[in-house]
Amino acid sequence: MLERETDEKTSFAELFEAHSETPRKGFFPGDTVSGVVVKISKDTVFVDLGGKSEGVVGIEEFLDRDGNPAVREGERVDLRIASTQDGIHLTKGMKVQGAEAIDLLREAQQNQIPVEGRVAAINKGGFEIDLSGVRAFCPISQIDLRFCEKPEEHVGQRYPFRIMEIKEKARNVVVSRRALLQEEQDKRSKETLATLKPGLEVEGKITKLTDFGAFADLGGVEGMIHVSEISHARISRPSEVLKSGQTVKVKVLKMELDKEGRQRIALSMKALEPDAWERGLEFKEGDILRGKVSRVADYGAFVEVAPGVDGLVHISEMSYERVTDPRTVVKEGDPVDVLVLGMDDRSRRISLSIKEAAAKQWVADQGGGEKTRLEVGQVLKGIVENSKSYGVFVRLPQLGTGVRGLLPVEELKDSEKGDLKKKFPQGKEVQVEIIAIDEEGRIRLSQRAIKEREDREDYEKFLEKQDRSESLGTFGELLKDLKLPKE
Description:
Elements: H1 2-20, E1 32-40, E2 44-50, E3 53-58, E4 76-83, E5 88-91, H2 101-110, E6 115-123, E7 126-131, E8 134-139, E9 158-167, E10 172-176, H3 178-195, E11 201-209, E12 213-217, E13 222-226, E14 247-257, E15 263-268, H4 276-279, E16 288-297, E17 300-306, E18 309-314, E19 335-344, E20 349-353, H5 354-365, E21 379-388, E22 391-395, E23 404-408, H6 420-423, E24 429-437, E25 443-446, H7 448-481
Parallel strand pairs: 3-5, 13-15, 18-20
Antiparallel strand pairs: 1-2, 1-4, 2-3, 4-5, 6-7, 6-9, 7-8, 9-10, 11-12, 11-14, 12-13, 14-15, 16-17, 16-19, 17-18, 19-20, 21-22, 21-24, 22-23, 24-25
């Protein structure tokens, strides 16, 4: 045990001797240096600064709240040079105390060395800072890099400060914490910018949320995530999915300088996540979906049917009635039911129909189940699509999406003939019979055939009734002539 203590003392003495002989050329008070901890003693930490140069710093600058060293041998540390007299003396942040406090403050100001202070109280326009007995003032704008929303959170905290002014024999000392934070951020910014490039995936911390996007700190430099790059799902405001202080993974999309020469970095979160097409859509052609109108154009409306997936309802698929302006039917944000007409995985396009969804629902309301078989003689209810001079085109939803037939003028009931535009407005329900299907699948419809069959059935019922009446009349005559015996 004694031998071990002797070795440690010898090592300490050797280190101290080596330190006192350390060349100090090129080191100046206030300089920031980086070195490796080579020895930790009871009171001192020795740091190898490279080039056969070593510095010392008091152990108290590395103690945690429990009084234990918060640094290990072999660890690299960043420090400042406090003095080069009798060796290189290092510091994390100069502490002022005792009768020499004023001289130390002036030296710290001259050499740009930080001093440690405690935020003692809030006063008008800023904070009262206790520099180990010396009263100083820190303007509220100099306590942090960002606007100070809650000054009370700083009271009682210990920070390093930069001495900005010393007036009236140190009775008026002005300090800034922001200056040190800015220096640190500038250093980190240079290091970060040296590694950033478009396409790189990095982590960032959300620092600010706006209506148009979110700002993220990437390590001393900020990038902006536009609201459209936050998620594949459509969101109105970043605050719906993000909060300040949240750590996020982002991809660097673009880096460019603005007019003032400042770096602008565009980031994306959604670029790191597979979209709905890549994951596989959970619907197919023929399905009815509930979506939300995301945009209205002159030729139709786009409806979001899955997070980040829009389909187009062409103006012709909005209603059975003629539509000249889609905005008269839907507006942005409206919930709508749409039927999937088609899906193109290659171009990532989806065709939708509002009127076909309504037709399918209409069939269900009529008690229809599975699709009706297409055959001559079927009597169906249809929906008027449009009218021409030669007849009426009728949509037949029971037969499937987009199936329609022609009801020629000669196949109309007599009561329906006349001005077809007035007699058959778009969307009107009509009952028709399939009377022919040609080789190309074109369907010919008729109202007259239904009317003739109904008339024929009525006539047959009339004849049947007449036959029964005549039979009863003959039997009555027989009874009339029949003479019953008297009792």
